[in-house]
Design brief:
By secondary structure, this protein is α+β, with helices and mostly antiparallel strands. It has three domains: about 110 residues, Orthogonal Bundle (Butyryl-Coa Dehydrogenase, subunit A, domain 1), CATH 1.10.540; about 100 residues, Butyryl-CoA Dehydrogenase, subunit A, domain 2; about 150 residues, Butyryl-CoA Dehydrogenase, subunit A, domain 3. About 45% of the residues lie in helices and about 15% in strands.
């Protein structure tokens, strides 16, 4: 692989000079230490120093990378287009690195949004360097898409809190130094509060879970885990909103990771069908094969456009921008399209496509979780439908025809 397919190269209308500079750094040579690496701890450290990728997870005002001017200069905003480029690159080079990078963002952005000055000073510099890895402890055995039904409890005791409960499918658990834990302090969505918990604190037990791909993930149990009130992130009852703000900021970049994996699969497919001969000619000369390649390339470009649009809109509006519909469209379409593209790449490889260790076989396993985490495809459809219906209702209330209605 001599170059990486990054959206800034041929979609310049969505990007700026700083993105071109970042893309120039994201070369196969620079990312070579990540390619094929199987040690999650080493991969996690490498993305901090020497690569400096974690700088893009933290706003410039708190020591991170510049996010440009205008509304995106909001001190709580990260530059989502930079996240898109990084995850496009990591998706092509190392899905393991991409997963760790993404959860490092989820495990640090709540501190950016709601942390005290003391929490930010204590945590964020080490996040940037890679000396500290975070995890986002939200999902539970009975609370996945239905976040409001979580059961982990935080009860007030003296001048602190006691946490009891269980979290599952929490990425970065085997590596994490700190956990952003969402626990119930009251009823409903308004009864969820976030806490910053040291992964080695008394009363915290971590159990790794096996995956079909290299991915640090596990289960957490809290049994009388005592934390001071200073471990609270934001206001009591503000945890649900904080979780949604965090997911909104990073959900767009899931689509970018999917695009990176799909781009790698398309590249592998093109190389294979050009090289492989059947019936006296390269596979690439067969009409059906060409039709498959055309469909794969078109779906990939459509996904890249949706992701770039959502990221541009988010960056233009800052951390407060409401881009839930666009983000859900980008995440849903890109991950589903990548699954189809990679599946087709496996098919074009024939029997070689299901031999363990081949690139397309690995990608086939790596892409599957992206259709689930940070909101399943089904949840994205609900978000999109709500967004378009709310918009139509607002247009009718304003006396304007809704989109699609006769004017």
């Amino acid at each position: 692989m001599t170059t990486l397919a990054l959206s800034s190269a041929d979609l310049p209308v969505f990007f700026e000079e700083r993105h071109a500079a970042l893309a120039a750094r994201l070369t196969p040579e620079a990312l070579a230490p990540l390619a094929g690496a199987q040690d999650p701890a080493a991969v996690a450290r490498c993305m901090g120093e020497p690569l400096g990728l974690y700088a893009h997870l933290v706003p410039e005002a708190l020591g991170g990378a510049p996010a440009g001017g205008g509304p995106a200069a909001d001190p709580a905003a990260v530059d989502v287009r930079s996240l898109v480029l990084i995850r496009e690159a990591l998706g092509q080079v190392s899905p393991l690195a991409d997963a760790i990078f993404a959860v490092q963002g989820l495990g640090s952005y709540p501190i950016v949004l709601a942390g005290s000055d003391a929490q930010r000073r204590a945590i964020l510099p080490d996040v940037l360097s890679g000396r500290r890895i975070g995890a986002f402890a939200l999902t539970e055995p009975e609370a996945g898409s239905d976040v409001a039904s979580l059961r982990t409890e935080a009860r007030r005791e003296g001048d602190g809190w006691v946490l009891d409960g269980e979290k599952v499918l929490i990425s970065n658990v085997p590596l994490a130094h700190h956990l952003v834990v969402f626990a119930r302090t009251g009823e409903g969505r308004a009864g969820i509060t976030a806490f910053l918990v040291d992964s080695g604190a008394p009363g915290v037990a971590a159990e790794p879970l096996p995956m079909s791909v290299p991915h640090p993930i596990g289960r957490l149990r809290f049994d009388g885990c005592r934390v001071p009130d200073g471990a609270r992130l934001g206001e009591v009852g503000g945890g649900y909103r904080l979780a949604m703000q965090t997911l909104d900021a990073f959900r767009i970049s899931v689509g970018a990771a999917a695009n990176g994996m799909a781009a790698r699969a398309l590249r592998e497919a093109i190389a294979h069908v050009t090289r492989r001969r059947q019936f006296g000619a390269p596979l690439s000369e067969q009409q059906m094969v060409r039709a498959y390649l055309a469909e794969m390339a078109t779906e990939l470009d459509a996904a890249r456009l949706l992701v770039a649009r959502a990221a541009h809109k988010r960056d233009s509006g800052g951390a407060a921008a409401r881009v839930s519909t666009e983000a859900a469209m980008a995440k849903m379409f890109a991950t589903e399209a990548a699954q189809r593209i990679i599946d087709r790449a496996v098919q074009l490889h024939g029997g070689l496509g299901v031999i363990e260790g081949t690139e397309v076989e690995r990608l086939y396993r790596e892409i599957r979780p992206l259709r689930i985490y940070e909101g399943t495809t089904e949840i994205q459809k609900l978000i999109i439908a709500k967004g378009i219906l709310d918009r139509a209702a607002a247009e009718r209330a304003a006396g304007e025809p809704a989109r699609g209605e006769a004017r």
